[in-house]
Amino acid sequence: MNDPMSTALLTDHYELTMVQAALRSGAAGRRTVFEVFARHLPGGRRYGVVAGVGRLLDALSSFRFTDDELAFLAEHDVVDAATIDFLAGYRFSGDVYGYREGESYFPGSPIMVVHGTFAESVVLETMILSILNHDSAITSAAARMSHAAGERPLIEMGTRRTHERAAVAAARAAYIGGFATSSNLRAGFLYGVPTRGTSAHAFTLLHDSERQAFQAQIAALGPATTLLIDTYDVAEAVRTAVELAGPELGAVRIDSGDLAQAAVSVRQQLDSLGADKTRIIVTGDLDEYSIAALAAAPVDGYGVGTSLVTGSGVPTAAMVYKMVARADPDGELQPVAKRSVGKPSRGGVKAAFRRIGPDGCALAEIIVPDGPHAAQAAVTVPVNGGDTDPRDTHRPLLAPLVKDGEVVGGESVAAARDRRAASAAELPPEAHHLSRGYAAIPTVFAGPWGSP
Amino acid sequence: MNDPMSTALLTDHYELTMVQAALRSGAAGRRTVFEVFARHLPGGRRYGVVAGVGRLLDALSSFRFTDDELAFLAEHDVVDAATIDFLAGYRFSGDVYGYREGESYFPGSPIMVVHGTFAESVVLETMILSILNHDSAITSAAARMSHAAGERPLIEMGTRRTHERAAVAAARAAYIGGFATSSNLRAGFLYGVPTRGTSAHAFTLLHDSERQAFQAQIAALGPATTLLIDTYDVAEAVRTAVELAGPELGAVRIDSGDLAQAAVSVRQQLDSLGADKTRIIVTGDLDEYSIAALAAAPVDGYGVGTSLVTGSGVPTAAMVYKMVARADPDGELQPVAKRSVGKPSRGGVKAAFRRIGPDGCALAEIIVPDGPHAAQAAVTVPVNGGDTDPRDTHRPLLAPLVKDGEVVGGESVAAARDRRAASAAELPPEAHHLSRGYAAIPTVFAGPWGSP
User: Fold this and answer.
1) Are residues B294 and B441 in the same domain?
2) Domain range enclosing B439
3) Residues of B in contact with A75 (CB under 8 A)
4) pTM of the model
5) Interior CA angle at A424 toward A419 and A427, to 5°?
6) Where's the Nicotinate phosphoribosyltransferase N-terminal domain (chains A, B) (predicted)?
7) SS3 sequence, B228-269?
8) B170-197 pLDDT tens trace
9) Does the residue B379 lie in any domain?
10) What ipTM does this complex have?
């Protein structure tokens, strides 16, 4: 399902002034290729996860300027009449290739490649980056939390800690990253993310006693519900909870204090009361580090809020959208690159392959010039000066997403979630270390690009 | 102007299950008072700025469950039929008081107070917190950057570094925080934020030479435009720029390298070419610290992206929404508070005043029990054990925002922007130190609440 609001003004002012100037200079219709890539993995991460692709394809379909929006642009002299005319008829007609949602990426991976005229491609820059940078940051953090949690389910509950619409995207991104459920109802409505929730401290405080609150909740939601036990005294709450719900009590939630210590004593108390099937859910400022630290505690699930929706210290991926080729006056594509100090880019249209060893473990990201022989070229690229192994396989990473302006790469959120798990599983084990480090596999550029 | 999309599902699942259980227990209609406050100022900040109030009032007006949304809730068994009926008729009918947008706040400030039945008030929790936490985090960071920039204008250009809709709110929040302009077109369209922009490196790369690109831009946007001079060689770009635009060249932008050093040499070069009125705009991973460090450099404006939209290390304010009072079985409001370890709250309905000394400098946040005599009580509250000064004034901080469900506190973004500047100006000078520290003024609770 598509969020129907117009997306065309989710765009930086300068994208439109560039269109105006290019329409005037005659360069607006030149064929160009733009590439999305990240110069580095922020925060000492060892891999990143591409997310937001599905949302981006939806947003691209809604990228049309409404009459009200065009009137705004005219009235505020954002651009001239000729540009308004161009925008009124705007419809992206080019091709987009990209890493599929849930795929791992590394520094320099050509995550998305946009072929089209300059004018039709440049106006998409801001929206493409907003969506990919936000969603990839969340899924990349979620993936680390999922690995730390192991088989224990993660519940996303950070909606209140981020922008109200970003929260919906974050819930979707967390689910792709391996979370089991979310508190966010709109993420259920729009994307089919499973939603869960029971009660907050306010529900206990509303009633004249904790006992009455528990009774009310069990009456309404059944004994398999999750009771929140830290409003007053935890031990008394556990006693009351099992007394009222019986051993079928589904779960208890602890939201404060030393969670490891509390889990141990609550587990003992539940077991002694015969509620040995009742699960213990912990919440309260968890991140991948505290989740890992709770591995030995008798915890059955984690609720994660702030750290998830803020990317656990990395609220945005470092992706940029750079022109890598454009047609010369004869119509031939020529590589282009800026030379800005500290921020250079590699010109040229690229193809990308994940090299996988015979044991199924990813070895390298191989980047070669795009073209009919790219796959053959990739096979021969040496990594770290070593020989190539004929048993290695090479998974192509750029899939067609848009063809002649039509979305051809749509897929379900469930498919992206499965891909995320599979792609992470084939990374070398050190990819999942939580400490700061370097990219888990090298990105090898075999082409006429030189070093970045 | 209002973003028209339905807001009712921007809500945590558990808000609705609590309504279901409270409808069943009979407590759903109890009168309650919820309070928004922050236990601390994150990141060692010395004051926070309340933002998002205007967006929240808009979102509250759109908080109605559509038929599609109700069908989703029923189909997925989120809540039972009685609750669906309640939600179908949902319309907030209570009162909301709050700090006005742009006002400074401190730990424990009762930023927003919601009076209504439990059921109608609890379902607003998630949306209220999402909006206030996001926008306040951005405006609080923007305010620090504004102080660091002094008279030099700040340009918000972080859209591509955050969720595409969060970016619109961030542009609005930055403007309230003192930024002059934004790149975000939708923020102009929805909120009247002034938008600006000229060109990116891609525009230079598109043309066969930098000279042709500059010619094209000047032809389309006039010589008063801003030319981006770091695509290839900065000194050559400056020469070309002044040759083509003449001394009327509006500005040049530097986006890479050592910005202070580059600004000095570009200034010298511009002056030597007679372009002594041409301004220098710097961009590229700036935050309040690097802005402050550029104070002595010949810079005329700053573009800020990532650090603004991510709250400069603090992407969310720490606001929570807690029940502080509810009616007892006789209908009398009683204070309530949870006792969770490390996360206690103060029960009781509060009034808040900013005490201002005779020199116009803020001295304290005074919190007293709400009621007809609150203002008189606030005057007598001692701060730090000292005597009160009869010349002190006390500005009431809680204004009526919603009365009987109708918005009564709407105001323009410009009014919020002016308030932000005025409120910041009356804080003691140490409030604006960039180093980590404590709240710039104490929050004094004079009531039956004890310590938190």
Assistant:
1) no
2) 13-138+317-347+398-445
3) none
4) 0.97
5) 135
6) 9-133
7) ECCCCCHHHHHHHHHHHHHHHCCEEEECCCCHHHHHHHHHHH
8) 999 999 999 999 999 999 999 999 999 9
9) no
10) 0.97
